[in-house]
């Protein structure tokens, strides 16, 4: 992008079925900050009359792109091609800023207007991507547009490769959840535009964000060539609270950074393929990753035990990767310290005061491992209770603790009880891993953070116990990641507020 060119345009596709609704949506899009709108004539049913078209396109509040996409290119215009092109030609006479024409449309049929020449692949990233890009670059169109479905995040990187390679103004986007990063990072790489829907349900392509998400969740207006990139690798990834929490923290800290959800299919091979593709592109300025289910063990294997802190290596999993400018990686696990701090804050003690405390841990999965390792490092006295007793025993043996079946928890003589199972988590909020809480228990910590008050915590409160919610652990682990990546203290209260807002639906 030359210094004279405007920043990447936020383009709102207008997908109403009637011209008056489309015009109203155009005004709303302008008010919400879209710099361009795309009138999808193929969504108008029946097709507009000449007068309706003129009313729709005259004196627009933002620059317009006019598109009349046929069904064979993923659009909705089902009539024959001469009717489609005739409508497009009529629209061109209203002098929109651009008319979008598919590469399959012969040159002699292009309307008289500045042209966005587009290619779509709804199945995958096309094999012949480079050849398509060469044809777009060689054409007389003003703007190149290439859009394809991402089956994995690496495909989204290919869209960014295209942006970097093209000399002409270009839109290159990957559709689908795995492609989201290409829509957001389009601005960092000087794309001509990116598309954002007016609201949920008005998308013109799969996983298109809304204007509100782009601006308020992904910091669109702050993004630029120098923006550093972070993200959370998971499967699923879209439900994660981490993008909201970390982007709010970057914003509060005045940092030029953005944090994205990254859908990476389960399996060590998929994790490696993603990381290799990311590290092969140092120009992404990728500086850090959170790692969640099911990739925490894969992340440790990829980064290498020698590049992780000692306790993470013992836990066998990491949830944080720091990427230095020279591409070297450092792995850490912020879960265990986050859990210990949450527990100690709730009990008003310091971590060393956990020594000798009798703790019942329910569960033997990934979170239980991190918590048991944390408790062991502070010399607490732990018993692990798990549904699958053999799994509980394996974990207990590693740390020289005792194990028992889940039903035994009701007879525990522990003072502190920590739930590390997923029982009671949204949406099954009326479930509890226990029917009753043993009389010895004085403190109950539930690692589940959605809902805020699990049935177990409500039972504990009724039994007179001190309760600690998983929200504190979640906030602590995210704050620790922020510190690892930025070397600055985290705006913990901002992060906690965002978690609570998201969980209570107050945002
Ligand atoms: P995981 O590795 O899949 O382990 C799940 C554990 O729950 C296992 O011990 C499993 O027992 C047990 N379990 C599952 N369904 C059960 C049932 N119906 N009855 C009894 N036990 C059952 O999961 P994880 O990664 O450890 O995560 C566990 C929970 O931690 C999550 O659900 C989440 O709410 C919470 N968490 C909190 C934070 C935070 O920051 N606060 C972060 C991550 C996770 P078996 O061994 O018998 O299968």
Instruction: State the distance separating the first and last CA atoms.
Output: 35 Å
Helix percent band: 25-40%
The number of E-state strands comes to: 19
Tell the overall outline: elongated
Tell me the strand percentage band: 15-25%
Q: Return residue spans where pLDDT drops below 50 for at least 5 consecutive residues.
A: none
Small molecules (ligands, ions, cofactors) in the structure: NADP nicotinamide-adenine-dinucleotide phosphate
Class of secondary structure makeup: alpha/beta
Spatial arrangement of strands, main beta sheet: 7-6-5-4-3-2-1-8
Radius of gyration: 27 Å
| Average pLDDT score | 96
Number of helical stretches of at least 4 residues:
17
Largest sheet: 8 strands, parallel
Describe this structure in words.
The protein is of the alpha/beta class and 507 residues long. Helices cover 36% and strands 19% of the residues. It is built from 17 helices and 19 strands. It has an 8-stranded parallel β-sheet with strand order 7-6-5-4-3-2-1-8. The longest helix has 17 residues, at 470-486. The radius of gyration is 27 Å and the shape is elongated. The protein starts with 8 loop residues before the first strand and ends with a helix. The site of NADP nicotinamide-adenine-dinucleotide phosphate has 25 residues, from helix 13 and helix 16. NADP nicotinamide-adenine-dinucleotide phosphate (NAP) binds next to helix 13 and helix 16.
């Amino acid at each position: 992008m030359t210094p004279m060119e405007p920043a990447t345009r936020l383009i709102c596709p207008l997908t109403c079925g009637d011209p008056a609704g489309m015009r109203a949506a155009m005004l709303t899009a302008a008010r919400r900050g879209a710099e361009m709108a795309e009138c999808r004539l193929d969504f108008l049913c029946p097709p507009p009359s000449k007068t309706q078209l003129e009313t729709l396109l005259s004196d627009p509040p933002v620059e317009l792109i006019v598109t009349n996409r046929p069904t064979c290119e993923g659009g909705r215009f089902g009539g024959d091609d001469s009717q489609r092109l005739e409508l497009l030609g009529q629209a061109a006479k209203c002098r929109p800023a651009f008319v979008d024409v598919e590469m399959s449309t012969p040159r002699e049929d292009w309307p008289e207007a500045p042209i966005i020449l587009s290619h779509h692949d709804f199945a995958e990233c096309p094999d012949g991507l480079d050849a398509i890009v060469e044809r777009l670059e060689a054409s007389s169109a003003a703007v190149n547009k290439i859009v394809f479905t991402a089956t994995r995040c690496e495909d989204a990187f290919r869209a960014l490769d295209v942006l970097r390679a093209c000399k002409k103004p270009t839109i290159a986007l990957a559709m689908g959840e795995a492609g989201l990063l290409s829509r957001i990072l389009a601005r960092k790489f000087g794309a001509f535009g990116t598309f954002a829907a007016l609201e949920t349900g008005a998308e013109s392509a799969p996983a298109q964000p809304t204007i509100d998400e782009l601006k308020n969740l992904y910091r669109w207006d702050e993004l630029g060539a120098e923006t550093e990139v972070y993200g959370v690798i998971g499967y699923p990834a879209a439900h994660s609270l981490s993008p909201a929490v970390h982007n709010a923290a970057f914003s509060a800290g005045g940092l030029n950074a953005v944090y994205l959800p990254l859908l990476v299919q389960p399996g060590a091979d998929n994790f490696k393929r993603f990381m290799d593709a990311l590290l092969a592109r140092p120009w992404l300025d990728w500086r850090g990753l959170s790692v969640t289910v099911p990739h925490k063990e894969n992340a440790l294997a990829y980064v290498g035990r020698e590049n992780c802190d000692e306790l993470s290596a013992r836990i066998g999993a990491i949830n944080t990767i720091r990427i230095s400018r020279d591409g070297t990686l450092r792995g850490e696990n912020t879960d265990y310290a986050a859990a210990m701090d949450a527990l100690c804050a709730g009990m008003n003690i310091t971590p060393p005061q956990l020594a000798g405390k009798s703790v019942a841990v329910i569960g033997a999965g990934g979170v239980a491992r991190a918590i048991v390792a944390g408790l062991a490092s502070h010399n607490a006295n732990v018993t692990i209770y798990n549904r699958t007793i053999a799994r509980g025993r394996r974990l207990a043996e590693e740390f020289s603790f005792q194990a028992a079946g889940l039903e035994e928890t009701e007879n525990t003589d522990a003072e502190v009880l920590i739930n590390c199972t997923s029982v009671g988590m949204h949406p099954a909020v009326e479930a509890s891993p226990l029917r009753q809480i043993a009389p010895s228990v004085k403190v109950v910590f539930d690692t589940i953070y959605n809902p805020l008050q699990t049935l177990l915590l409500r039972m504990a409160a009724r039994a007179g116990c001190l309760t600690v919610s998983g929200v504190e652990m979640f906030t602590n682990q995210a704050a620790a990641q922020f510190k690892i990546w930025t070397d600055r203290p985290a705006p913990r209260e901002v992060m906690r507020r965002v978690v609570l807002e998201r969980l209570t639906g107050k945002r």
